[in-house]
Prior knowledge:
The structure holds 2 protein chains of 2 kinds. By secondary structure, chain A is mainly alpha-helical. Chain A has 7 helices and no strands. The radius of gyration of chain A is 16 Å and the shape is globular. Chain B has 3 domains: 2-61; 78-118; 123-284, Rod shape-determining protein MreC, domain 1 (Thrombin, subunit H, Beta Barrel). Helices cover 40% and strands 25% of the residues of chain B. Chain B has 6 helices and 12 strands. Chain B has helices at residues 2-17, 19-35, 39-59, 61-77, 79-114, 273-279, and strands at residues 123-132, 140-143, 156-158, 163-170, 175-179, 186-191, 196-201, 209-211, 224-227, 239-247, 250-255, 264-269. In chain B, the strands form 2 sheets. Chain B has a 6-stranded antiparallel β-barrel with strand order 1-2-5-4-3-12. Chain B has a 6-stranded antiparallel beta barrel with strand order 6-7-8-11-10-9. In chain B, strand 10 and strand 11 form a beta hairpin. The radius of gyration of chain B is 25 Å and the shape is elongated. The N and C termini of chain B lie far apart (57 Å).
Amino acid sequence: MHRLNMHFWLRQMTPFLFCLLLVLGHLVPYHFLPYYPYSIQWTFIPIFYFAIYNPRCLSSWAVFLLGIISEMLVQSPMGVTTFCFVLLFFMANFLRRYLLELTFGRLWIVFAAMLLVVEIINYLFVTMMAPNPVAFLPVLVEFWVLLLFYPFIMRLCAHFDKKVRETAL
Amino acid sequence: MENKQFRLKRIRSQIRRLIPVVFLVFAIVLMVLWQTKNPAIVATRYYISDKMAPVVSALAAPARWLKSAKDSFFNAVTLYHRNAELEEENKVLRQWRALAMQLESEQNEIKKLVGYVPYPKSTTVVARLVMDTGDKFSRSYVALAGTKDGVGNGSVAMTDRGLFARVIEVGDHGSRLMMLTDYLSRVPVLVGKKRIQAVLSGDNTNRPKIIFTEEWNKIQPGDVVLTSGYMGVYPSGLSIGVVHSVSENDVDVDLFESGEGLEFVRLIDFGLSDALLKTDCKEP
């Protein structure tokens, strides 16, 4: 019985653990793109997915916690990444009913729009805190890379979600 | 009665949907606390970062293995050409070595004549870079060496090519390095043979900019950039890079060491941490 409970909780925690792994993977000092020395914040995609399809498994407090963990580890100003994570979650979760009815392609476009808003807010916050202007190019690159890899990570999230739902049943 | 229950349920659901707003407010509070350099937040962040360094080092093992396999493969492929190149380079370097030895002896004589007081003895530690704690806005690494290994706050991180970062936080087993390209980095420098005083400012691109100089029109592409030692935060004469391009009020510098793909660095403590406190240059 105890083992069964443990198994159930581990499965329920899968989305959070997956996001945590992405946050920690962000810190590995070998970069994904050659000649591009910045890390990509992959966590945005699972947050968007679970905010729409299974917000009970990755609730707002879990997203907040992920932001805090991420910021405790990186050098960027505290609060900014957390704000962006929660903002994306909030926007996706707030429009959940409408987004659930959209086709994959349209959802992709909505993700692009929401990500753009989040990235611009992120950039504005950092620029406000920085002593002089900060380069905008890394923001654009992250935006396009996330859009490009959106279907693959969404599929991975859907796989985890399916496993979680199977356990819940 | 049923209607009332339904309404209550609806209100509860609406409130639940607004919980993220509370977290957004928390995040803004965190930003304010960070901007005011709240000591508890700074200390907690560094404590967690220090403890996480070995975990991330273990996580990075597969990536390290892949990189080493890739490097070995490409080294084997280009071995013949590299050998020929190195032989040519070695011939040139031998000539430079003779010149350097001659200049060193002259410099020693001059130092004796003018009664030059050298920098205090430095301590050097070689450390592995285990965490890339930068993101799309900041550029920093964590090295697996801390106070227990003799690293102090303000130590400089160098390779055989040149300076590339400075230690801004130091824990027992790890230290956080802020790269010269980070948007918070400022280094007093001397540019070119005319030794023009300026400041090298990171802007999060691969080419930091020269700022705070009125003599920018005297700067030429190819001029060497060295630390000036002004303000005592960095020792003088450490090589940084060369001027890449010059336009009105915009001088880009190509760093000798970009830090990309580095595994090990030399952390040199020149004992300048007191200067950091005095000049209030300590980063958050």
